[in-house]
DNA sequence: CGTATTTGACCAGCGC
DNA sequence: GCGCTGGTCAAATACG
């Protein structure tokens, strides 16, 4: 909890406002179209405000340099709390947030992210089919992204294995469950479409990676390892300068595969720093999606 | 043939 | 206690 090292895993270090202090293990980062208030209302928010008084503030920073023809003003909505107990913010589905009480939190550092890769297989959490009765399901920190995209499974630099799919109540779209293919990594993610806005993909990450991305070779900072950049390969995402539409491919299973030029090496194969200076495109990739769209005021 | 996905079944938590 | 729902498992299936 208090051992998040230098970069806050919730914000990925985006919050640089000295008045902000993040020390909880839940967080929410939503990337959405601020003109679409249905995103907020879906989570029980009214007038772009969360219903929870414990939230110190919501920042909705718009990016003004987006081309108008994209017809989408992408903004970052960050919910942060100093209370140390964000509940709903880390839970996209308000109906399911009640279980995220203090009893449900792991007391050990397992939730801090640094001990996520303990070598235990993911099934050990619940014991697989032979689940121990009375053992509570441990939830790790979660970060959610709302992404305008036509493609459900957005490439984020890690490899994921789908292990389940469920129909979601009050939603025509199923929810897919993915697990990191790294055997020592317990990070999971859920992917679903917003029932109110089918063009919005809700991606929820749970846990933190303890390894580098597969597709992104450079040495990543702590928070980048924890929460990889989210690449949006949809047509509406051309607003992001680092995306190269001509390199866009769609995988056999509907999984988007974005292949910027800098992507070619396996995890752990670090590029040397003395290679050619980064182009603006490369710089943007290094910063990741959030780094690209988070207003400068929210980051250094 | 190895790996990834699909899908029905099972389990846990929660509300009534 | 019961039903509902979310989350997970694992056998079957598909794919390269």
Question: What is the element layout, followed by pairings?
Answer:
Elements: E1 28-33, H1 38-42, E2 55-62, E3 74-81, E4 142-148, E5 160-167, E6 174-180, E7 188-193, E8 200-206, H2 222-226, E9 248-250, E10 256-258, H3 280-293
Antiparallel strand pairs: 1-3, 2-3, 4-8, 5-6, 6-7, 7-8, 9-10
The protein binds a DNA duplex (16 and 16 nucleotides) through residues 93, 95-96, 98-99, 122-123, 125-126, 128-129, 131, 133-137, 161-166, 168-169, 175, 177, 181, 188, 190, 252-253.
Structural class category: mainly beta
Low-confidence stretches: 1-116, 118-135, 216-300
Oligomer kind: single chain
Q: How many E strands?
A: 10
Output mean pLDDT. Answer: 47
How does the overall form come out from the CA principal axes? Answer: globular
Helical residues, percent: under 10%
- How much of the residues is beta strand, in percent? 15-25%
State the major sheet: 5 strands, antiparallel
Biggest sheet strand order reads 4-8-7-6-5
Architecture overview:
Helices cover 8% and strands 21% of the residues. Strand 5 and strand 6 form a beta hairpin. The model is unreliable at 1-116, 118-135 and 216-300 (pLDDT under 50). By secondary structure, it is mainly β. It contains 3 helices and 10 strands. The longest helix has 14 residues, at 280-293. It has a 5-stranded antiparallel sheet, with no helix packed on it. The chain has a 3-stranded antiparallel sheet with strand order 1-3-2, with no helix packed on it. The chain binds a DNA duplex (16 and 16 nucleotides) through strand 5.
């Amino acid at each position: 909890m208090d051992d998040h090292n230098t970069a806050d895993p919730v914000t990925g270090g985006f919050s640089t406002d000295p008045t902000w202090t993040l020390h909880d293990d839940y967080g929410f980062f939503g990337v959405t179209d601020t003109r679409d208030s249905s995103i907020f209302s879906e989570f029980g928010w009214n007038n772009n405000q969360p219903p929870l008084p414990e939230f110190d503030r919501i920042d909705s920073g718009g990016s003004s340099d987006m081309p108008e023809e994209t017809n989408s003003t992408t903004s970052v909505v960050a919910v942060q709390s100093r209370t140390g107990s964000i509940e709903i913010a880390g839970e996209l589905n308000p109906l399911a947030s009640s279980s995220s009480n203090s009893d449900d939190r792991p007391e050990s550092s397992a939730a801090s992210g640094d001990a996520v890769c303990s070598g235990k297989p993911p099934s050990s959490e619940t014991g697989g089919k032979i689940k121990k009765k009375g053992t509570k399901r441990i939830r790790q920190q979660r970060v959610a992204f709302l992404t305008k995209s036509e493609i459900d499974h957005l490439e984020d630099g890690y490899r994921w294995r789908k292990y389940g799919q469920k129909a979601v109540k009050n939603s025509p779209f199923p929810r897919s469950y993915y697990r990191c293919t790294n055997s020592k990594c317990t990070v999971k993610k859920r992917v679903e479409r917003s029932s109110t806005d089918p063009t919005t993909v809700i991606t929820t990450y749970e846990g933190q990676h303890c390894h580098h991305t597969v597709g992104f070779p450079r040495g990543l900072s702590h928070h980048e390892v924890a929460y990889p950049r989210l690449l949006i390969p949809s047509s509406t995402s051309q607003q992001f300068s680092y995306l190269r539409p001509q390199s866009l491919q769609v995988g056999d299973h509907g999984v988007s595969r974005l292949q910027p030029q800098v992507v070619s090496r396996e995890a752990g194969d670090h590029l040397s720093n003395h290679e050619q200076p980064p182009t603006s495109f490369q710089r943007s990739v290094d910063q990741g999606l959030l780094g690209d769209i988070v207003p400068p005021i929210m980051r250094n």
